[in-house]
Design brief:
This protein is an alpha/beta fold. It has two domains: 118 residues, Rossmann fold; 96 residues, Arc Repressor Mutant, subunit A. The protein contains eight helices and twelve strands. Strands 2-1-3-4-5 form a five-stranded parallel sheet, with helices on both faces. Strands 6-7-8-9 form a four-stranded antiparallel sheet, with helices on one face. Strand 4, helix 4 and strand 5 form a beta-alpha-beta unit. The chain starts with a strand and ends with a strand. The site of calcium ion (CA) has 5 residues, from loops.
């Protein structure tokens, strides 16, 4: 079955170019011309991947992203002329999977779309559970639970936790985590890693005492201990 890609882009020539090229790759493509339409189509279509312009009429791209993340874990790739680091960090914190800065090459865009769709597939075919303390991490359903009670995680909180938990005991630098979990690297972006670690600790660590699972490795980064 072909995968559905939703393109939310108000520059019609670019949207049509993207549609044409992605259809040539065998995807089913739908386009939306503004943020409001994009969000409602994302809800209705449940696309496998979303290409989302940041500067959109009626509803800003970041607001669309926030809306999508309320109901979907599908990869979202932001298309942006904005290069400010603050925007990128905000996009990542809201659960974007990748950034593509305009102007971009179509070959690169198609390659990134392929990578993100493949990664999604890898996650869904795996059927594994990791247990630590009173927690269970279901890698198939992307679900963390404590004594059977689900715990709400932001998409990148889940991915960071799953990444570290599957590599139990190994230390990773912030740059490595940014590269492997967010698939991106930029100066200053490592703050995003610290923010997500802090959020995760609130959910899986005891309020007092040193962390038992998400351990800071001095001078290096973080590691996970069962
Ligand atoms: Ca635009």
């Amino acid at each position: 079955m072909s995968r559905t890609v939703l393109v939310v882009e108000d520059e019609r020539p670019l949207a049509e170019t993207l549609r044409f090229n992605l259809e040539m790759e065998g995807y089913r493509v739908r386009t939306a011309e503004d943020g409001v339409e994009g969000l409602s189509m994302a809800r209705a279509l449940q696309p496998d991947l979303v290409l989302l312009d940041l500067m959109l009429p009626r509803l800003d791209g970041l607001d669309v992203l926030r809306g999508i993340r309320e109901h979907s874990q599908a990869p979202v790739l932001l298309l942006t002329a904005r290069t400010s680091e603050a925007d990128r960090v905000r996009g990542l914190d809201l659960g974007a999977d990748d950034y593509i800065t305009k102007p971009f090459s179509l070959a690169e865009l198609k390659a990134r779309v392929r990578v993100h769709l493949r990664r999604k597939q890898d996650v869904t075919v795996e059927e594994r559970e990791l247990e630590f303390g009173e927690f269970k991490l279901d890698l198939n359903r992307r679900l963390l639970s404590r004594d059977g009670e689900p715990i709400a995680l932001r998409p990148k909180e889940y991915e960071l936790l799953a990444y570290l938990a599957q590599r139990d005991g190994r230390a990773f630098t912030r740059d490595q985590l940014l590269n492997d979990v967010w698939d991106i690297s930029f100066a200053g972006g490592t703050r995003t890693v610290d923010v997500h670690v802090r959020w995760l600790r609130k959910k899986i660590e005891k309020p007092e005492g040193p962390p038992r699972h998400l351990i800071t490795v001095r001078g290096a980064g973080y590691r996970f201990e069962r």
